[in-house]
Amino acid sequence: MDDREEVKSVLEHLPLVQAPDAIWTSIEAALDEHRSPARRQWQWGFAAVAVSALLVVGYWTVGHRTGQWIETDSKSRTTLRIGEIGFVEIEPGTRVRVPATQPGEHRLTLARGEIRAKISAPPRLFFVDTASGTAIDLGCEYTLSDDELGLGLLQVTKGWVSFQWKGVESLVPAGASCRTYPKIGPGIPYFDDASQRLKDALGNDAIDVILAESRVRDTLTLWHLLQRVPAEERARVYDRIAALTPVPDGVSRDKALRLDPETLKLWKDELAWKW
Amino acid sequence: MVDLIDRQISAEIVAACRAGDRDAFRALYDLYKDRVYSIAHYFLHGDPAAASDVTQQVFLKLMTHIADFRGEAEFSTWLYRLVVNACMDAGRRRKSDEVASERSHLEMFADPASQEDDYARTQVANSVRAAVSALPPKFRIAVLLRYFEDLSYEEMAKALHCSMGTVASRLSRGHRMLAERLKGLKYG
To answer: A198 and A209 in contact (C-beta within 8 Å)?
Structure first.
């Protein structure tokens, strides 16, 4: 008996559960409402900031006004529709640009300020370039801010975001954040509910404190830390992760300490269920 | 379970949905709603409100952004990823993902309509539900996807954002956990 048949023999006692009729009613109401707020946001943007609104209108109706900068003043905000895959809310004091776009790809450049992206699409369709690197949407909602020095903060509220710069990558899941640095790239991600001591220690490279303060969930931080610390420190990080949660089959200590890519990916895939 | 006919129909419906056909949206919803709801229902320990929220969220996302999708295979993968993400997010938002005590958990799953059925069969069904609910989230979602959606390992790997080897491992371990928990239970 193969595994599918084995599952069936057990789970045939789990009947299909009929979805309540009220769900469709709620969906329809939400779909109808969805069409209206977009128009209201466009109209508000037009009234509030003339230049930005014109660019938004151009973006909306013509497609991409490539190369155009969109800038909000200290009191205004506006919304960009990203094709059919979502929206980006541009907060006050923000400057973004819509560069040339490839088919099947949507990009923004964030020069400074804050944006909130709500994207629902297959992964790697929406990108935001900053001075610190590129945020790659993996199907999510997130906030990305960047100051004039290029120091930034990525906060993910749904799904995942990959932030990359020259081969350095941080994977940031929902409920986690990651600082970004110009010419350095993404920092080590951490959960927003991690201890303040742990968060402060990340900024100070205080490995002892990071290890001592970490919980099972903070293996997100530790997995990234393993790849960033000097080689002589990796064993301590490995041992801490192993103490928090069993190391899965296929992840050898030796390969992990050598940062074998396949080993690290396998370990991450298992740890991710705790993140 | 999804059969070939279902998949062919859904490809046509997807095309109509992309053109903004609300009736096509409804047909697409009707095609998948019970399976999506069932996965959410069993994943979230039989909580109907949570399962409804997840189902609504999945289909809203699907319907508001469907124009961006190019083919039936990609649509299916996206649907299942939406289901996985929504279930996992909902599970994290719950104060505790721990299974309630056996007694209260069985009460949560108790189906009033089954009171007229044979008591033994009802108990078996409740035991199976409780056993699935007791699985760690990563094994639970894998088992439910495999059973309700009949996905291949490759499709599951895309939905779960992991390797096929990991899919196989989780299914294998999930099955063993179920078998251990249900040891001695007679199904017939």
So the answer is: yes
